[in-house]
Every structure is written in C-alpha cells, then in structure tokens.
C-alpha cells in the first residue's frame, strides 16, 4: 500500500512525462493567475504575468490590461489621460470588492466552524464505546456534544 505524501517536501525536478507536465502546468498557471488577481484586488497594484507553457505557448494576465502595463514598463507610448479611470467606476469597483471581501470573510468563518465541528466528530469517533465509559466520561461527552451543537 502506498503511503500518502502529506506535507512532505517534493523534490523540484523536471517531469519526464509530457502529459503530466502539461496538466501540472495548467493547474499551476491558474494558481499563479489567481494570486495575481488577489494582489491587484486587495492592494490596487497593477500586475502583469506572462508565462510560456512547455509547448512554448504564451499565456498572460494583466490588470488593468497587459498592453497598458507593458507599454508603461517598456517606456513606449505611455497611456494618455483619456484612459484615466472614472471616479464613479472606481467607487463602484471598491464597493464590489468590499462586498466580496465581506462574503469571503463570512465563508472563511463558516468553514472554520465546520472544521471544528468535524474535528469534534472525529474525536468522538476515537472515544471508546459508550457502554464502557464511566459516568464522569459520559458527562464530559455530553458537554462536548452540546458545545459542538452550539457551534452550528
């Protein structure tokens, strides 16, 4: 039986299998783009990322756009002020960002509660059968179950 890797450190070497390499690239690319999105959303940073797949196909992500950031970075044709964002649009985007962050925080709190509830259930499964518990242990189990019930 194969043992799971868990949090074991994986050696960073090139993958020999081409299909595995392509799948891993796709998953990692999405993760990098997601992190760039978070960075631009949370910090208001202008971000551009260009990566090349194992088959040399370019993929890019940019906020506000790849072209505008690349032009600014390379010093060629900086964007004119006509492209300056409208203050109303910025306020609307910030309001949407704040709402999304509030929803994310609520979901993270809910996830944490569910994890604690799952841990409590796992702990109760590891306990000996109820018939073999003393009255003291039964009272403690009742208190733990009531506490888990209050979490939900």
Structure characterization notes:
With 152 residues, the protein is mainly alpha-helical. The protein folds into two domains: 16-81, SRF-like (3-Layer(aba) Sandwich); 85-152, no CATH class. It has four helices and two strands. The protein has helices at residues 18-43, 66-74, 87-126, 135-151; strands spanning 47-52, 58-63. Strands 1-2 form a two-stranded antiparallel ribbon. β1 (47-52) and β2 (58-63) form a beta hairpin. The longest helix is centred in the C-terminal third of the chain and has 40 residues, at 87-126. The two termini are 37 Å apart.
Category by helix and strand content: mainly alpha
| Mean pLDDT, all residues | 83
Could you describe the largest sheet, including whether it forms a barrel?
A: 2 strands, antiparallel
Supply the number of helical segments: 4
The total beta strand count reads 2
Number of domains: 2
Question: Quick gist of this model?
Answer:
The protein is mainly alpha-helical and 152 residues long. The protein has four helices and two strands. Helix 3 runs antiparallel to helix 4 (135-151).
Summarize this structure as a short list of keywords or feature phrases.
single chain, 152 residues, mainly alpha, SRF-like, two-stranded antiparallel sheet, 4 helices, 61% helix, DNA-binding, transcription regulation, RNA polymerase II cis-regulatory region sequence-specific DNA binding, protein dimerization activity
SSE diagram, text form:
Elements: H1 18-43, E1 47-52, E2 58-63, H2 66-74, H3 87-126, H4 135-151
Antiparallel strand pairs: 1-2
């Amino acid at each position: 039986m194969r043992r799971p890797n868990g949090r074991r450190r994986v050696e960073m070497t090139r993958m020999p299998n081409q299909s595995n390499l392509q799948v891993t690239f796709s998953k990692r690319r999405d993760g990098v783009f997601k992190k760039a999105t978070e960075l631009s959303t949370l910090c208001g940073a202008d971000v551009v990322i260009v990566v090349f797949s194992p088959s040399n196909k370019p993929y890019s992500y940019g906020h506000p756009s790849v072209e505008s950031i690349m032009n600014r970075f390379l010093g060629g044709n900086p964007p004119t002020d006509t492209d300056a964002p409208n203050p109303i649009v910025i306020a609307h985007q910030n309001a949407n960002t704040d709402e999304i962050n509030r929803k994310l925080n609520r979901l993270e709190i809910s996830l944490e509660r569910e994890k604690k509830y799952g841990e409590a259930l796992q702990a109760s499964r590891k306990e000996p059968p109820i018939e073999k518990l003393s009255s003291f242990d039964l009272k403690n189990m009742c208190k733990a179950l009531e506490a888990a019930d209050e979490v939900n």
